[in-house]
């Protein structure tokens, strides 16, 4: 890995074994983009890549030079209105009403490692030799605004991170109205665009379309990154697939309003923008103040979507997630939400926990309903004090009882919210986000607290810290059940109201930072009505997130498959729930529910007492299996073999392979059973071609041994007959069937 600068040609070349990123100072002093892709040899002079073509009649040119118009020049941080007409990376409203700027290169700096982003989550290095950072300085002389463009190239993987710091070195304050984290101009538009979209209970479904002339975008203006869209997109060549071909993934480490956009212009170049959504955003930058954008991560691979995902997984698992739980196998938990909802007593909880312990569960989690006057979702949020009628000895008492059973104890909070029917709201009605003179809309009977205010965050911190210090708590589920409306903070002046959405998220990060530093061994799981804020920003604090409120195994295939494009398996909260399922009322076999949940953090979301004895025995076996293989499942290399989004989506398959390629676990899932089926084979991935593997299928050994090359090229036979199952009436004949294969290298 290296960053080279040619003084003569004013060109930067950032490269590692996988990628090259080349940019240059343009004739007008702006920064121009020359290349991003597979690694190329270094040269002093790449200036030929700056193609200066005259486009007569329509072009406005920078300085009466027909061949230099910003409109036709690929830039690093595009500006609008000075010959470029594409959507820009930056817009600054000045006191005279102008929004133009002219950012000219003034110098640069290189450093080993990667500096922290103040107040924001970001990837990091542990040793300086893991990455190198380039900071390019640009200045707009008229306003005195200085931009520092941060580029970090990691030694391993095709990873480049970017962010921008704005500093006002002028005398007048300005309003930043657009400050993207990343702008990348690509020389063509021969790409497919992948996005991960949905709604509550159907998060991160993959959608694919061709890039076309004009703008394609996904975004959120809901205050949270949202169920509807995820701050992650992929551009892939149309012929690229899981195993080969050029792909670029773009991910924003941020949990609030975002925009991810690609604009294809009249000459087929593509501009990608990623950052805080400019809609409704403004930031007043006083003289000498700075503003830091969130970090954007680009991963390039010429080895397909699978390699891109594994690169994101490694980075986010090892150099975004932090702390005690980063590299630890996830605790198997039993959450009481779908078992009881609000209808519980302490005795009932202990009864559920006892059976869970009996079956091998390691942690019992008490979900919503334990505090204040909360007996349904209409009261109590904000009153983080145990309801003594339900829990006579409080959380401390219950946690001791659970610990005495030999399990850990976990607790649910929704720190950012309050119900109008709560003591918190009655005492501080002015603490909510609402616009003066306007109706304040409710969402799930609750208001969002004004987390842009430090005193609000501080008071919630104190309540939570008190409970955490008084009780034995080893896990927190941090929920967030409504988007933000009537966004306005009563303590900020009119010209700072555009900052509230961002300041709110900074407040969330601040609370996470304080709690995770004060209680470093507590495992945090983020949640937002399921997967409404499943984003890299929260992975920095909470190494796992509840992926969706939809716990149906079949629905989860799409949700977990889509989630895996960017997020590591160790981060995907996945539980076995009751059948018929509470969201879609589908009946699925217990083995399939577990087989899907294995590819995640794994746990149970039901009262195990209500299962038959035979089912309880099955649960014990499942937990034994998970304990044996969770390290491999959660931290191995993940391969998507068959997609629920392809064709009729009837068969999905995933596998994880150990680092030494000697062991693998494979999950195979078939939604509907069809009579008289054709023979089927599944081509595996990631194995060592030269090793011989023994295979067990649902615990039964298959005859023979199989070379890695055979399994990856010929495939694994998945036809039922070959699996020695009876076709009718038995497991192999049912809908919603699945199997788990374990592969072990011989010798
Ligand atoms: C939404 C979460 O996603 C659920 O798992 C549960 O915690 C409820 N909120 C509780 O209100």
Q: How far apart are the first and last residues' alpha carbons, in Å?
A: 37 Å
Q: What fold name stands as the CATH topology of the largest domain?
A: Beta-galactosidase, Chain A, domain 5
Architecture of the largest domain in CATH?
Distorted Sandwich
Helices and strands: which structural class? alpha+beta
- CATH top-level class of the largest domain: Mainly Beta
**Beta-strand proportion:** 25-35%
Runs in which pLDDT lies below 50 for 5 or more consecutive residues are 722-730
Distinct small molecules: (2R,3S,4R,5S)-2-(hydroxymethyl)piperidine-3,4,5-triol
Number of helices: 12
What does this structure look like?
This protein is an alpha+beta fold and 747 residues long. It contains twelve helices and 40 strands. Strands 6, 7, 8, 9, 11, 12, 14, 15, 19 and 20 form a ten-stranded antiparallel sheet that branches. Strands 29-28-27-26-23-22-21-31-30 form a nine-stranded parallel sheet. A hairpin with a 4-residue loop joins strand 7 and strand 8. Helix 6 (454-470) runs parallel beside helix 7. (2R,3S,4R,5S)-2-(hydroxymethyl)piperidine-3,4,5-triol binds at residues 337, 367-368, 412, 479, 481, 527, 529-530, 546, 549.
Task: List its salient traits.
alpha+beta, globular, TIM Barrel, single chain, 29% strand, Immunoglobulin-like, 747 residues, 12 helices, binds (2R,3S,4R,5S)-2-(hydroxymethyl)piperidine-3,4,5-triol
């Amino acid at each position: 890995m290296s960053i080279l600068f040619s003084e003569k040609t004013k060109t930067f070349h950032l490269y590692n074994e996988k990628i090259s990123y080349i940019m240059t100072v343009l004739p007008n002093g702006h920064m121009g983009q020359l290349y991003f892709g597979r690694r190329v040899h270094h040269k002093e002079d790449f200036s030929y890549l700056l193609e200066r073509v005259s486009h007569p009649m329509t072009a406005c040119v920078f300085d009466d030079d027909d061949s230099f118009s910003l409109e036709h020049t690929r830039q690093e941080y595009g500006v609008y209105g000075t010959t470029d007409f594409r959507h820009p990376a930056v817009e600054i409203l000045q006191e005279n009403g102008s929004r133009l700027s002219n950012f000219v290169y003034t110098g640069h700096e290189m450093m080993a490692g990667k500096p922290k982003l103040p107040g924001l989550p970001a990837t990091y290095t542990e040793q300086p030799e893991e990455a190198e950072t380039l900071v390019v300085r640009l200045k707009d002389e008229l306003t005195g605004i200085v931009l520092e463009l941060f580029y970090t190239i990691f030694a391993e993987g095709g990873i480049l991170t970017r962010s921008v710091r704005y500093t006002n070195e002028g005398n007048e304050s300005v309003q930043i109205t657009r400050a993207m984290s990343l702008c990348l101009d690509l020389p063509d538009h021969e790409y497919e665009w992948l996005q991960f979209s949905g709604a509550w209970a159907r998060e991160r479904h993959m959608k694919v379309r061709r890039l076309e002339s004009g703008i394609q975008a996904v975004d959120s203006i809901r205050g949270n990154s949202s169920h509807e869209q995820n701050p992650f997109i992929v551009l892939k060549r149309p012929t690229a697939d899981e195993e080969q071909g050029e792909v670029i993934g773009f991910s924003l480490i941020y949990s609030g309003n975002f925009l991810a956009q690609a604009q294809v212009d009249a000459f087929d170049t593509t501009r990608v923008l990623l950052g805080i959504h400019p809609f409704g955003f403004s930031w007043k930058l006083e003289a000498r103040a700075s503003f830091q954008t969130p970090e954007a991560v680009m991963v390039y691979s010429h080895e397909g979507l699978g390699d891109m995902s594994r690169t994101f997984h490694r980075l986010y698992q090892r150099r975004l997630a932090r702390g005690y739980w980063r590299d630890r196998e996830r605790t198997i938990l039993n959450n009481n939400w779908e078992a009881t909802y609000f209808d519980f007593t302490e005795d009932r909880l202990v009864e559920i926990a006892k059976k869970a312990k009996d079956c091998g569960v390691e942690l019992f989690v008490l979900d919503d309903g334990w505090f204040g006057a909360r007996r349904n979702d209409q009261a109590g949020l904000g009153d983080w004090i145990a309801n003594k009628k339900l829990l006579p000895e409080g959380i401390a008492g219950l946690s001791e009882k659970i610990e005495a059973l030999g399990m850990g104890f976990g607790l649910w909070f929704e720190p950012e919210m309050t119900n109008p029917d709560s003591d918190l709201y009655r005492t501080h009605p002015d603490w909510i986000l609402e616009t003066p003179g306007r109706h304040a809309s409710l969402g799930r009977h609750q208001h969002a607290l004004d987390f842009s205010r430090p005193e609000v965050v501080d008071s919630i911190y104190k309540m939570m810290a008190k409970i955490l210090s008084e009780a034995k708590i080893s896990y927190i589920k941090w929920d967030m059940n409504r988007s933000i409306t009537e966004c306005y903070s009563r303590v900020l002046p009119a010209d700072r109201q555009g900052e509230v959405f961002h300041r709110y998220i900074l407040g969330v990060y601040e609370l996470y930072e304080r709690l995770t530093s004060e209680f470093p061994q507590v495992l945090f799981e983020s949640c937002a009505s399921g997967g409404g804020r499943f984003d890299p920003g929260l992975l920095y604090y909470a190494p796992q997130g509840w992926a969706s409120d939809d716990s149906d195994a079949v629905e989860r295939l799409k949700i977990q498959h889509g989630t895996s494009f960017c997020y590591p398996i160790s981060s995907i909260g996945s539980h076995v729930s009751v059948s018929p399922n509470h969201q879609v009322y589908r009946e699925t076999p217990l083995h399939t529910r577990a087989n899907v949940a294995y590819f995640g953090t794994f746990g149970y979301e039901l009262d195990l007492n209500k299962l038959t004895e035979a089912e309880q025995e099955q649960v014990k076996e499942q937990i034994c299996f998970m304990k044996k293989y969770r390290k491999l499942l959660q931290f191995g290399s993940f391969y998507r073999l068959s997609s629920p989004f392809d064709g009729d989506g009837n068969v999905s398959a995933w596998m994880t392979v150990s680092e030494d390629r000697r062991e693998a676990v494979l999950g195979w899932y078939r939604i509907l059973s069809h009579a008289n089926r054709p023979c089927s084979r599944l081509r595996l991935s990631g194995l060592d071609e030269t090793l011989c593997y023994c295979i067990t299928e649902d615990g039964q050994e298959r005859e023979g041994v199989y070379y890695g090359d055979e399994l990856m090229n010929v495939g694994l036979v998945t036809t039922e007959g070959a699996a020695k199952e009876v076709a009718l009436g038995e497991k192999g004949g049912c809908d919603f069937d699945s199997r788990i294969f374990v592969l072990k290298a011989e010798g």
